[in-house]
Structure formats: C-alpha cells, structure tokens
C-alpha cells in the first residue's frame, strides 16, 4: 500500500498527504499558489531582477517530491526564454502511478506542459537531461546530508522544500543550513515557506542576510536569505 494519497488543495490543485508523517507535500491553502509565490516570485524572479536579468539560472531543490516546483520552473524558462538548469534531490521518489494522477498540467496553460512534466518524471536519475530548449534537469536519489562538496558555489537559487520542522526536524539542522550556504554562489538566494525563529537565527549564524516576507495565501510569513559573502 502506498504511503501517500492525493488531496485537493484550496486553489483546486492537488497535493499529497503522507500517511506515516501525517503531513502534506504542499500548503493546504493551494499547492500551485504556494509554489508560485514562494519559489518562483520570491526566489527566481527576485534573484533574476537583482542580478540584471541574466539569461541562465542554476537552481538547487531540496525535495523533488511531486515535481511541481520543477514544472513551474520549466514553465518560467519557456515563457521567459531563459536557460534553467534544475538540480533536485529526492531520497524517496514517488511511484509514477501516483504522479500520473496529479492534476498540475491541467491547471497550467490548458495542458500545454503535459509532455514536459512527463519528461521531467521519466528522466533518468543521476545525470543531466535536456528536457526542452530552455530547461534541463538533474535528479539525484540522494539526501541533502550526502551532497558532495564539489557542488559548492554552484547555484543561484535554492528551493528549500523539506517537510516542516515539526515533522522532519533533522532537515532544518544548522549543519544542513550551512550546507545550503556553501552550495550557493555569492549573491545566491535561499527561499523556503517556513519562518521559524530558530531557522532565521541559524541562517544568520552561518552568514546569510535574512528577510522575513509576507507568506503565500494562508501563511503569515516566509523566509528569504541571501548569501552576500563579500559584505
Ligand atoms: C514537502 S515535500 C516536497 C515537495 C516537492 N518540492 C513538491 O513540490 O512536491 C518534501 C520532500 O523532501 C523529501 N526528503 C525527505 N528527506 C530528504 C532528505 N534527507 N534530503 C532531501 N529530500 C528529502 C521527501 O521525500 C519529500 O519528497
């Protein structure tokens, strides 16, 4: 029996409920709304504007899960004609039988990205795969705890999309926050839906500049942290 079941969130998009953790993969207030707001608007769009609209972006995601964030990043790449390389890690990949029932592509541009979403999920693991003219992905079946140092200083934006601190506390330990700092290039940004006080203190402790931003629908606040190593 599968550990997950599909639920419908308040914007009509699906998410998954993890029966063992008793936790959802996205906000109940809207999976697509949350991902677009936290990771696309406050992450990619913010970084790109700040850096003078560069034509390529390297993203690192913690927790590939349903692939929703990858799909939205691919949509951004296509619509803005920007090259995105998306590196994501996931130690517990979902069964494709579950993924095929998710309604994400029907909610985005009338199904225009269905083929792209399928390609993202069918892409081989542990290697860089070109999905479209503007979007490539590398999916590693790996834990954040085991990321190798040679990826340090490689990424512009980190999507930190682990399960909540109350459900998977080890993902939010300061050693992993420092790992994220090291993975980013100078000027890179880390975004997450959580705004826990301890997280903000740890982000500052490892060297980030930290902002508390208004949260996505249904959540008061979120956090963005910038690596300004030279200041
Ligand atoms: C909140 S869900 C991810 C949501 C995902 N970004 C999406 O849009 O569906 C958290 C994900 O982190 C994964 N995860 C669990 N332990 C992890 C670890 N040690 N390193 C990286 N990811 C982990 C889970 O399996 C799960 O898919």
From TrEMBL:
One of its GO terms (molecular function) is oxidoreductase activity, acting on the CH-NH group of donors. PANTHER family: MNMC-LIKE METHYLTRANSFERASE DOMAIN-CONTAINING PROTEIN, SLL0983 PROTEIN. This is tRNA (5-methylaminomethyl-2-thiouridine)(34)-methyltransferase MnmD. The gene is mnmD. Pfam families: Methyltransf_30 (PF05430). InterPro entries: MnmC-like_methylTransf, SAM-dependent_MTases_sf, tRNA_MNMC2. It comes from Marivirga atlantica. Residues 144-228 form the MnmC-like methyltransferase domain. Signal peptide: none annotated. Gene3D superfamilies: Vaccinia Virus protein VP39 (3.40.50.150). NCBIfam families: tRNA_MNMC2.
């Amino acid at each position: 029996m599968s550990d997950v079941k599909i639920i419908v969130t308040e914007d009509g998009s699906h998410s998954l409920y993890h029966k063992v953790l008793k936790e959802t993969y996205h906000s109940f207030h809207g999976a697509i709304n949350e991902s677009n707001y936290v990771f696309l608007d406050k992450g990619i769009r913010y970084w790109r504007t700040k850096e003078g609209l560069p034509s390529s972006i390297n993203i690192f995601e913690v927790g590939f899960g349903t692939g929703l964030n990858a799909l939205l990043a691919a949509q951004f790449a296509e619509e803005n004609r920007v090259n995105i390389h998306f590196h994501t890690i996931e130690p517990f990949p979902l069964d494709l039988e579950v993924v095929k029932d998710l309604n994400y592509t029907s909610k985005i541009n009338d199904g225009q990205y269905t083929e792209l979403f399928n390609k993202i999920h069918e892409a081989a693991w542990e290697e860089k795969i070109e999905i479209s003219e503007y979007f490539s992905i590398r999916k590693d079946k790996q834990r954040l705890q085991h990321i190798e140092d040679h990826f340090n200083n490689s990424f512009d934006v980190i999507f930190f999309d682990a399960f909540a601190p109350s459900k998977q506390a080890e993902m939010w330990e300061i050693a992993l926050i420092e790992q994220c700092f090291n993975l980013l290039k100078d000027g890179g940004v880390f975004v997450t839906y959580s705004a826990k006080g301890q997280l903000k203190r740890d982000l500052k402790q490892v060297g980030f500049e930290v902002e508390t931003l208004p949260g996505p629908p249904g959540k008061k606040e979120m956090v963005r942290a910038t690596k300004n190593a030279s200041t």
